[in-house]
Specification:
Blueprint (H helix, E strand, L loop, with lengths): L13 E5 L4 H12 L3 E6 L2 H13 L4 E5 L5 H15 L4 E4 L15 H28 L3 E6 L12 H21 L4 E8 L5 H9 L2 H8 L9 H12 L10 E4 L7
Parallel strand pairs: 1-2, 1-4, 2-3, 4-5, 5-6, 6-7
Helix pairs in contact: 1-8, 3-4, 4-5
C-alpha cells in the first residue's frame, strides 16, 4: 500500500464522530478537522453540536452535525446518510458515544440501569457499525474506531454493567475486524483510562477521594485530557495505521500495566 505524502493524517477523508457534543467526542471533532477531515458530528444535544460546528466552520473546516440517538436505528441511518450525501462517502468513523452508571454492587444493580448501559454502550456501537460498514462497502473500504475503556480490559468492583458493556465493545470490534478486513475495512478499538469529561468529573465530584486513588495507581499520575484520547483515534482512522486491525490500543497512562 502506498501511503499519502500529505502531513495531515486524515486529509480528504469524510469522518463521522458520535458522542461529539462534549468530552472526547468534541475533542475528536477538533483533532479530526485539524488533520484534514470533513466531519459529521452526532449526538443528542443540539445546542452543543451547533456551537461546536460553528466553531469548526469559523476556523475554516468542513463540519456538519446531525442530532441523533445511537440506540435508534433510524437516527443512525440518517446520520450516515447525511455524511455520504454532503461529503460523497464515509471513510472513517469514531464510535465514541457511551454512558456510565452509579456504582452499585451487582446484586443491587437494577434492570433499568443495566439495560440502559448495555443499550447505549453495546447496541449503540453495533447499530453504528452496521450502517457505517454498509456505506464503506459501497466505496471500497474505510476505518472504524470504537471507544471502549480500561473497563473493557480489567474489572473493578461495583461497576458490573459498565464493565460488561465495554468488554462487549471489544468483542464487537474483533468480530467486525475479522469479517470485513478482506473488503477494505479496518476496525479497531481504544481503551482510554481516566479522562477529563462530564462523566468522570461528575463521578469525582460525588466520590472526591477516588481521584487520589486513580492517580496513585497509574505510572503517569494524572488524568488525561480529552484531546490525548482523540489523537489515538485519529491515528487509527488514518492510512498510517494501515496494518493495524482488530486491536485495542490502551491510552491509559500505563494504568493497565500494573
Amino acid at each position: 500500500m502506498t501511503l499519502g505524502t500529505d502531513k495531515s493524517l486524515l486529509a480528504g477523508k469524510s469522518a463521522l464522530i458520535t458522542g461529539a457534543s462534549s468530552g472526547i467526542g468534541a475533542a475528536a471533532a477538533r483533532v479530526f478537522c485539524r488533520e484534514g477531515a470533513s466531519v459529521t458530528l452526532v449526538a443528542r444535544r443540539e445546542a452543543q453540536l451547533a456551537a461546536l460546528t460553528a466553531e469548526l466552520r469559523a476556523a475554516g473546516h468542513r463540519a456538519q452535525y446531525v442530532v441523533a440517538d445511537v440506540t435508534r436505528t433510524e437516527d443512525v441511518a440518517r446520520a450516515v446518510r447525511e455524511a455520504v450525501t454532503v461529503y460523497g462517502r464515509l471513510d472513517a468513523a469514531f464510535n465514541n458515544a457511551g454512558i456510565g452508571a452509579q456504582p452499585a454492587p451487582m446484586h443491587l444493580l437494577d434492570e433499568e440501569t443495566y439495560d440502559s448501559v448495555m443499550d447505549t454502550n453495546v447496541r449503540g456501537v453495533w447499530n453504528c457499525m452496521r450502517h457505517e460498514i454498509r456505506a464503506m462497502l459501497a466505496t471500497g473500504g474505510g476505518a472504524i474506531v470504537n471507544n471502549s475503556s480500561t473497563a473493557g480490559l480489567v474489572a473493578t468492583p461495583v461497576t458490573a454493567a459498565y464493565i460488561a458493556s465495554k468488554h462487549a465493545v471489544l468483542g464487537l470490534t474483533k468480530a467486525a475486524a475479522c469479517e470485513y478486513a478482506a473488503q477494505g475495512i479496518r476496525v479497531n478499538a481504544i481503551a482510554p483510562g481516566s479522562t477529563r469529561s462530564e462523566m468522570i468529573d461528575a463521578w469525582l465530584r460525588e466520590n472526591p477521594a477516588m481521584e487520589e486513588v486513580l492517580l496513585a495507581s497509574a505510572p503517569l499520575p494524572r488524568i488525561a485530557a480529552p484531546a490525548e484520547i482523540a489523537e489515538s483515534a485519529a491515528w487509527l482512522c488514518s492510512d498510517r495505521a494501515s496494518f493495524v486491525l482488530g486491536t485495542t490500543l490502551s491510552v491509559d497512562g500505563g494504568w493497565t500495566t500494573r
